[in-house]
Amino acid sequence: MPYFISHYASPVGDITLCARDNALIGLWIEGQSHFMETIEDETAETSDHPVLMAGREWLEAYFTGRCPSPLTLPLSLEGSPFRQAVWQLLLTIPYGAWTTYGQLARRLAAQSGKKTMSAQAVGGAVGHNPLSIIIPCHRVIGSNGSLTGYAGGLHIKQWLLEHEGADLSGCFMPTNRFSCRK
Predict the structure, then answer these.
(1) Domains plus CATH for the chain?
(2) Out of 18, 67, 137, 180, which one is annotated catalytic?
(3) Is 180 part of the annotated catalytic residue set?
């Protein structure tokens, strides 16, 4: 069975949505890392697939300043149990808020009954989120306030957070990927 794709012109660039069966399985911003990496079969472009139409309507609501719930969409997340657990945690980050990779790691450790969890491992799972924006990986920042680690690009991460009205005081854009501010 093919994957069905559709496009949405957004303020942050062209977005590709992908559905299979009756669920949305992908949303990627043009040029982002891991673009369509989970797609294994042929794709067919369409504008009238009901799931893709719902995805475009959700994006329209989001980009016009409303706060649509990801839970209104039929989503199918394909990934390891660890990635699935991280992506479920991302869904709990409120619109206009943010958390850190370390905070997510501590929450996941507590849920798993472990003493600790690697923030870097959580970051890897966050970075491979196949439903960018809908599963709000842009709401995760570095523990030092760095707006780091967004597959769509840091300028888009900043734009999305500002669009949501997130308080970014104390946050900063890293000058390069190897620098930290203490």
Answers:
(1) 3-72 (3.30.160.70), 81-163 (1.10.10.10)
(2) 137
(3) no
